[in-house]
Amino acid sequence: MEAYNKSIELDPKNDTIWLRKSIALQAMGNTREFVKTIDKAIGLNQSNGLAWLLKGSVLAMTGKYDEANKALDKAIGLNQSQELNEYALMMKVGTLWGLASTMRPIK
Which of 7, 28, 50, 98 has the fewest CB atoms within 10 Å, measured from its CB? Predict the structure, then answer.
């Protein structure tokens, strides 16, 4: 974390540094800081498909399906690799399933 913070201090507008810091935060289990940091990366580069994909994935894993769905919608098409787009689509299916499971049946 110290190295990422120093890198950000030297180059605060580098979205890749913010993205990598967010990945480290998530690996450490700090989801709240992950979201803040990934949002900073996205704020610096709205077309960073990987950042949107990671945000959507983490939000889906924490049960925030509606927010995850929106992030994954942004990720789809921005990713330059077919594999990342396929992963985003699979995650989107999961978020839609999660949303459906939280709905109450109509009586």
Answer: 28
Task: Write out pLDDT tens, residues 60-100.
Answer: 888 898 899 999 999 988 877 888 878 788 888 888 877 77
Amino acid 103: pLDDT: 61
* Residue 67 φ then ψ, to 5°: -65, -40
7: exposed, middle or buried (Cβ count in 10 Å: 0-12, 13-18, 19+): middle
Contact 53, 75 (CB under 8 A): yes
Model pTM score: 0.83
Please name which of 31, 32, 52 lies closest in space to residue 41, comparing C-alpha atoms.
52
Q: How far apart are CA 49 and CA 80, in angstroms?
A: 8
